[in-house]
Amino acid sequence: xxxxxxxxxxxxxxxxxxxxxxxxxxxxxxxxxxxxxxxxxxxxxxxxxxxxxxxxxxxxxxxxxxxxxxxxxxxxxxxxxxxxxxxxxxxxxxxxxxxxxxxxxxxxxxxxxxxxxxxxxxxxxxxxxxxxxxxxxxxxxxxxxxxxxxxxxxxxxxxxxxxxxxxxxxxxxxxxxxxxxxxxxxxxxxxxxxxxxxxxxxxxxxxxxxxxxxxxxxxxxxxxxxxxxxxxxxxxxxxxxxxxxxxxxxxxxxxxxxxxxxxxxxxxxxxxxxxxxxxxxxxxxxxxxxxxxxxxxxxxxxxxxxxxxxxxxxxxxxxxxxxxxxxxxxxxxxxxxxxxxxxxxxxxxx
Length: 350
Known about the structure:
This protein is mainly alpha-helical and 350 residues long. It has helices at 10-23, 25-54, 57-60, 63-104, 111-120, 122-156, 163-188, 191-198, 202-212, 217-248, 258-300, 302-310.
């Protein structure tokens, strides 16, 4: 941290984010590309299977064999693919937070070192990712589906206005779901920087993120909106030229090649989306870490604590084991007493 610590506004946080990102672009992009590549590979396999199963190729096999293949594929996707996706997302987010923390402290770190630091506390970061997902999206989505099911059942047995009640629940629940997502996101989004920097447990990181976010939730929401708009525009910028190029290939627009053209365009959209995710995820990680330190400066006087520590007025905190690749130096033992361990203290003559 060569720059003086002080509270930053949103524009300054974004400028600092881009500065750190440009300085270590290959490291951040390499870390973000790993989980994005895993997601793209699983999504591509799923897309190819659905295209094969929906085409006439599956009809050539026996119906029983096609059904067994479908069940096996969905079982592998659920039991293997889904846990791999969740684990890659959790460890990738933690590795990006570690890289952002090192960049903030002007310390060098490689892609391998950041991934190794995330792997050391993998179960903690995995539980934090699952906990965030449950609180922000999964639990409200399940509540909405349950309310919609109850409204549909009430209409089926003649209670209420039937379809009208289900429609009201669907619209109101959808609006409430979006509102809850945004409100919960801005409160719990700093949990990973908290967990990485302070090495706390998952639940403690969630609670501390809720407290630290007070006073910064509007700026965090603006950050998320800017990132969403940027991701959309970059996806269009990457996919549009390739889709136009496919349309210009002679014979690609004929009915015989319509299915192939549609498959290529869909795959291009998938690839563009995941490539943009690899580009934009480091922006979120760096900005959230800057928000974390900014809130500590505003609410806890972290800048004063840092200056006092640099001046030697406070003992410098020993780094956590997960924050460094080298073992901590041993404590220096006190010098031996030259008079012997059992010698009594010297008495000053009167």
